[in-house]
Write a structure and sequence with these properties.
- It is a single chain.
- By secondary structure, this protein is an alpha/beta fold.
- It contains nine helices and ten strands.
- The strands form two sheets. A five-stranded mixed beta sheet has the order 3-2-1-9-10. Strands 4-5-6-8-7 form a five-stranded mixed beta sheet, with no helix packed on it.
- It is globular and about 55 Å long.
């Protein structure tokens, strides 16, 4: 039976070791030729330049725009409400990147919908900002994170997306829910407490059946945290306690 397989991961946030573990030791070894990164290449982790270089230069990878990528593009260092990433941290990261990658990031789509044997599949970072969100923050691209999502809340969030299955990120924690559509929050590849990188291998068959396989591969998480400290990243302690302590 014919099939189509893609790799999906998201929210790398400068964690180059997690990125390369998932790419080199899982997606590439399995011969997956199309890979989606669902946004937020930069901020938080110690190696934004290396991550941006790898993701924008690999022809197998489709990069979706995330909120931190958009902030880098527009040199927006003002953190939104409830953000744990400080202005000083963002300034430090954006200065490391310089302007070199802004043209590439400007071409990142916010949404891709593909048709696999009649199954429509959407790839995006998160639900798009509404008018009410723009009144609170005129620079918002995405709506605030739903801390306790349900199938019903995702039905409302993604009602305008014409797809059967929706893959996204942003919250960093994996979520699988089924409402009017199938919703898969892939979960950050490395911003969590586990000593493994994570992603999804998605396969659709010509009879329209499909499989969403969550995958992990070990990586040296402690080396990433040590690297953050040695690079003198602003607010490293706070960021580690918040972003590297979640599930």
């Amino acid at each position: 039976m014919k099939s189509k397989t893609v790799g999906i991961f998201t929210d790398t946030h400068g964690n180059y070791l997690a990125l390369t573990a998932m790419l080199n030791y899982y997606f590439k070894q399995r011969g997956i030729k199309k890979i989606f990164h669902l946004g937020d290449i930069v901020s938080i982790g110690p190696r934004p330049v290396e991550c941006m270089e790898r993701l924008t230069s690999d022809k197998d990878i489709v990069c979706i725009l995330g909120n931190h990528d958009n902030d880098y593009l527009n040199d927006n260092t003002v953190p939104p409400a409830l953000s744990h990433v400080s202005k000083e941290h963002k300034r430090f990261m954006f200065d490391l990147l310089g302007d070199k990658y802004k043209q590439a990031v400007s071409e990142f789509p916010k949404l891709i919908i593909e048709d696999y044997f009649g199954v429509k599949v959407a790839f995006l970072h998160y639900g798009f900002a509404r008018e009410i969100d723009l009144k609170r923050n005129k620079k918002a691209v995405f709506r605030p994170i739903d801390p306790n999502p349900t199938a019903n809340s995702f039905d409302k969030m993604f009602e305008a997306i014409e797809a059967d299955i929706i893959f996204f990120g942003h919250k960093h924690s994996p979520v699988d829910l089924k409402g009017k559509k199938v919703y898969c929050d892939v979960g950050s590849v490395g911003c969590h407490k586990g000593e493994f990188a994570r992603g999804v291998v998605f396969t659709v068959y010509e009879d329209k059946s499909y499989n969403i396989e969550r995958v992990t591969v070990p990586y040296d998480r402690n080396e990433t945290l040590t690297d953050m400290n040695e690079c003198n990243i602003p607010c490293a302690d706070h960021i580690q306690k918040y972003y590297f302590a979640a599930d």
